[in-house]
Design a protein that fits this description.
The complex is a heterodimer.
Chain A (H helix, E strand, L loop, with lengths): L3 H6 L15 H11 L14 E4 L6 H9 L40 H14 L6 E6 L6 H12 L5 E7 L11 H6 L4 E6 L3 H8 L7 E6 L5
Helix pairs in contact in A: 2-3, 2-7, 4-5
Chain B lengths: L3 H15 L3 E5 L14 E3 L4 H13 L3 E7 H6 L2 H10 L4 E6 L17 H5 L5 E4 L4 H13 L3 E5 L16 E4 L5 E5 L3 H10 L5 E5 L1 E3 L3 H9 L5 E9 L4 H7 L6 E7 L11 H7 L4 H11 L3
Parallel strand pairs in B: 1-2, 1-3, 3-4, 4-6, 5-6, 8-9, 8-11, 11-12
Antiparallel strand pairs in B: 5-10, 7-9
Helix pairs in contact in B: 1-6, 2-4, 7-11
The chains are: A alpha/beta, B alpha/beta.
Amino acid sequence: MQRIPELFARMAGDEKHEWAAASTIDVLWVLYDRVLNITPATADDPDRDRFLLSKGHGPMAYYAVLAEKGFIDESILDDWTSWDSPLGQHPDRMLVRGAEISSGSLGHGLPIAVGTALGQQIAKSRGRTFVLVGDGELDEGSNHEAIAVAARLNVANLTAIVIDNQSAMYGWPGGIAQRFAVEGWQTAEVDGRDHEAVFTALTAPHDCPNVVVAKIEKSY
Amino acid sequence: MTTMRQAFTRTVNEAIEHDPRITVVTAVISSNEFPQEHERVVDVGIREQTMVGVASGLALAGLRPVVHSYAPFLVERPYEQIKLDIGHQDVGAVFVSIGASYDDPAWGRTHQSPGDVALFDTLPGWTVHVPGHPDEVTPLLRQAMEDDNRVYVRLSLHENAQAYPVGEGFTALRHGKRGVVLAVGPMLDRVMKAVDSENADVTVLYAATVRPFDSDGLRKAVQETDHADVMVVEPYLEGTSSHLVSETLQQIPHRVRSIGVKRHAELRNYGTAEDHDAAHDLDVVGLGSAVRSFFRG
């Protein structure tokens, strides 16, 4: 984690996202450092855990973590978004080793994650699927289709992480966790900067789909 | 009498049993035709965006999804999911629709999809099959399920009296000197009757597969005529394939007439499919008139 600010700072041109303000940085770090059963050597292993970054906006934190963990060479951070760079402001899975999905348009990752988790079940794999969405992203109706379907089909090897930095236009009555709970998800709310709390929530046993709402101070 | 839809469900159900890659993803429509207790059969309820997203995830996990619904709900409603969750993720899937342009016009505009093939045509890498007979459905689908690519299969209640060999490009069913008519899928029988009624000395090509477009087959047929005049008759939006005809014949001065579901107006009429064929000049009378005027002289 110590090198993340330095790696992050190498990607210039999106200064509204300072590293310290990046809402996803701590959750991403905990996932790749302590939770996900995946390394550069096992990036194609059918039994790997799959992490889907649905909220593809502002992916510098994601790239910094992938670089620190050896999925991509950190030298490619410097000219990100250039013509020849594999790194754009929304990730492309065909260009970035370790990126499970291409994302950017909101509301796609959670339905895809239901599919990868079902695929892992069909394959009798021990792999799990984790998907990260933003609270603003939850405005997209496709997420709510998937929230319902994941619970009805009891996709228990699925964990969604909602980064809640109060970006949703109109918010969610009763809170985001409640939106998942009424559909039958296991829910947890944590401080999105508290690594131990994030780790505990992401590794809590669950026999139904699991959501971790990671609360982050609002930033602009 | 087997319909295209029955041929589809039978072929897919056979594949589920012997091919562990095959999965079926539906959004209620036709779901009772597939074994819901099977772990590789997933119905997501009436949620077409998630239907395509789930298919994407299954494909990313190494499976071969068959995705099915009524054409407007399979193609138009989740179009961005098709573009991004399938195409941009660079995974394959087999999309199979029923309903076509206006198979059930009593249901109105909401259940019509004349623009489906044109939408797929905006995306790279899709194979598009438009079978004209139930017996063409099975070989096309079997091949599609064995492959890894992106395939759209457009089924219809409209069909020709007999099946033709599929999978080998355009098939020449008659040869003439005045020009070429390319008939797509269920349009063939009406095209043949129209050509007969007008005594037109034209080559008739049949296509059950329109993407990839058999440019070599069309060019060869045109070169064997005395006039580079090509009429394309498609059962969906008129002109959907005209850009490929132009590209195919770019080195040859030529004329093209594109026939299909008209673009200029939204018909607020119910009635029968035959009524709509007549309104779009896609019946034998309308096609005969087009043949007569285009191949005159």
